[in-house]
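Try it yourself: sequence plus pyridoxal-5'-phosphate, in.
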Amino acid sequence: MVTLLEGNTPLLPAPRLAEATDPSLAIFLKCEGFNPTGSFKDRGMTMAMSKAVEAGSRAVICASTGNTSASAAAFAARAGLRAFVMVPRGSVALGKLSQAAIHGAKVLVVDGNFDQALDIVRRIAETHPVTLVNSVNPFRIEGQKTGAFEVVDQLGRAPDYHLIPVGNAGNITAYWRGYREYHRDGKMGSLPRMVGFQAAGAAPIYENRVIEEPRTVATAIKIGNPASWGPALEAVKDSRGWVDIVTDEEILRAYRMLAREEGIFMEPASAATVAGLVKIVKAGRIEPGSTLVLTLTGHGLKDPDTALESATRPTSVPASLDAVLAQLGL
Ligand SMILES: *Cc1c(COP(=O)(O)O)cnc(C)c1O
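Structure, out:
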C-alpha cells in the first residue's frame, strides 16, 4: 500500500456560517485541505498508486488543474515511480505547481485547457506503459468515497444535504457512492441530498453543454467537459439533489468570509461550496433545522496569489516605534 496516511480529516462545526445564513442550520466543514498534499485528491491517489504498483507499473501520468498533479507527484515519489503531469498554461495555482516540481515529476505546461490535456494523456496511457491516475481511473473514485464514510462516522448519522464543488465531477460521484454503500451496510438511516456547485464561467453540467473555454478564478474547477458527467448527474438525480452555479464574485466573497469568520483558509474552488450555501439558503431551498456538510476540497496555501489579491495588502513602515504606532491606530 502506497500511503502518506491521508484521510481522517476534521469535520469542523461552522457556527458563524450558520449565523450568517440561517442560525437554525447545523453546518459542518469537511476540511480536505488538511490531507498530506493539501487536497482530497490524496484519498484517490493512495488507491490509484497502490494498484499501479500491484500491476507492475513503472510510471504514472495525469492531466491536472493542479491538485491531482501535486498528489500524483508525491505518491509516485513515495512509491518510487516516475510521474508525468500535464497542466494548462496560466491556470494552475503556484503552490500546486511547486509541489509537482519538488516531488520530481516531469511537468509539461500545455498551451491549451484541462480538457485538451486530459484527452492527450488518455491517449498516451492507451498506447504506452504508463498508468493514468486521473479520476477516470476507477480506483481514484473508490479511494475518494472514504470521505463519505468519515462524515457519517464523525457525525453519527448522514447529513440532510451534502454540498460539494464540481469540476471533473469525480468527487461528487465518489461521495454519493460512499454514502450509498454505507447506507446499504446499515451504517446510516437516511441518505443526503447531493448539491454540486460549478463556477458560472465553467458550468457544463448546469448548462447541459460542453464549455469550450471555461473561465473562473477557481482554477481547480475550471473544466468544460467533465469526465464523470454522467455519474454526477445520476448522483444528483438519485439523491434528489441538484447542480447550481456561483459567480467568481460570490466565490471570492465566500473565500474571504471563511478565512475571516471561521479561521479556515481554503482555496477558491472550495469556497465555491460556501458561496453556494449562501445562495441556496437565501433562495429558501434548504429546510430550516437541517444538517449540512460542505466538502472544502483544498488548502488556501495552494493559491497565495489569489489570497494576496483578495485581502488588504501589507503596509511598509520604517523600523521605529512611532511609525508603527501611527499605523496601528491603537
Ligand atoms: C479536483 C478538485 C476539485 C474538483 O473535484 P472533481 O472531482 O474534479 O469534481 C475541487 N476542488 C479542488 C481543490 C480540487 O483539487
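One thing you can check immediately is this: The first helix runs from residue 15 to 21.
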